[in-house]
Design a protein that fits this description.
This protein is of the alpha+beta class. It has 7 helices and 11 strands. The protein has a 5-stranded mixed beta sheet. β3 and β4 form a beta hairpin. The chain binds a DNA duplex (16 and 16 nucleotides) through loops.
Length: 271
DNA sequence: AAAGCACCCTGTACGC
DNA sequence: TGCGTACAGGGTGCTT
């Protein structure tokens, strides 16, 4: 599932390959994928727009145009691929954009949860997101202050994009393992040392995952804009490892459901 | 404020 | 072999 490291990797690839390109057409094959404007208006609004840069906010890919912004959320299964227009159109391509150099930006999404937005300002979509955990100016003090106002379970909190932007199920579980904190711990129960451990763990796990170009769990999983898989799966400690030995102590990894989402943790290491 | 759940979707795993 | 069904997952919206 694309989370912050995967979206960051996609955005970096798109920034390289799309900068300076102009959109010359768009085809919508599954209208619900286009959240706004109305699919019929997308064409007239995006043709002629030029890409200035591609970045990321939370789990959104943010394409800065000479006028307006194209935002894409990959949700569960979305892929953004840049290919020559002559390449056969794969199944599950719900929207594709023609570029002025004979290539296409294709939005491929088996689950159809992903969404595309064309807006004047990115904040129209991203205003509710919490801070970026990897920003230089996101400090331990900031994190402690955010935690102080919360009382829910750590796992649910880390998954809440309004609390912190970019963590999903994989990196929330991995961060809690790295911090040696149980996913059901109350956010208001942490000692100063535990808060520091969690802050460090989130930044360390996300940073390493970005360096590894994200996590690709199987051959249908995440790939970047050039179709390349990530490598962080080799460093996964608990996610998806139910029943397997904890890499630190050998205790079987447990899986429980929190807030309707699976949570993986070591019952001995995480307290 | 937080928890629980249905919803959106489809491929896959599983039971019979 | 083939069918039906449960499940996974991020985010939103609704109810408790």
């Amino acid at each position: 599932m694309p989370e912050l490291p995967e979206v960051e990797t996609v955005a970096r690839g798109l920034d390289q390959s799309l900068e300076g390109r102009t959109f010359t057409g768009v085809t919508v094959r599954w209208p619900r994928t286009v959240a706004r404007p109305e699919p019929a208006q997308l064409e007239q609004q995006i043709i002629g727009r030029r890409v200035q840069s591609v970045g990321r906010r939370g789990k959104y890919v943010v394409v800065e145009l000479d006028q307006g912004y194209l935002l894409i959320h990959l949700k569960m299964s979305g892929r953004l691929l840049v290919v020559a227009a002559g390449e056969p159109l794969e199944g599950h391509v719900h929207v594709f954009f023609d570029l002025d150099d004979g290539r296409q930006l294709r939005f491929h999404d088996v689950r159809k949860f992903g969404r595309v937005y064309l807006v004047d300002e990115p904040e129209q979509i991203t205003a509710g997101l919490g801070p970026e955990p990897l920003d230089d100016d996101f400090t331990l003090d900031d994190f402690s202050r955010l935690l102080a106002r919360r009382s829910g379970r750590l796992k649910s909190l880390l998954m809440n994009q309004q609390f912190l932007a970019g963590l999903g199920n994989i990196y929330a579980d991995e961060s809690l393992f790295a911090a040696r904190l149980h996913p059901l711990r109350g956010a208001d129960s942490l000692t100063p040392d535990e808060k520091a451990r969690l802050y460090d763990a989130i930044r360390s796990v996300l940073g390493q995952a970005v360096d590894s170009r994200g996590t690709t769990l199987d051959d249908r999983g995440y790939v970047d804009a050039s179709g390349r898989a990530g490598a962080f799966q080799a460093q996964i400690a608990v996610y998806g490892r139910r029943g397997q030995a904890c890499l630190v102590c050998g205790t079987p990894v447990e899986r429980i459901v929190i807030g309707g989402r699976s949570s993986h943790f070591c019952p001995r290491c995480q307290t």
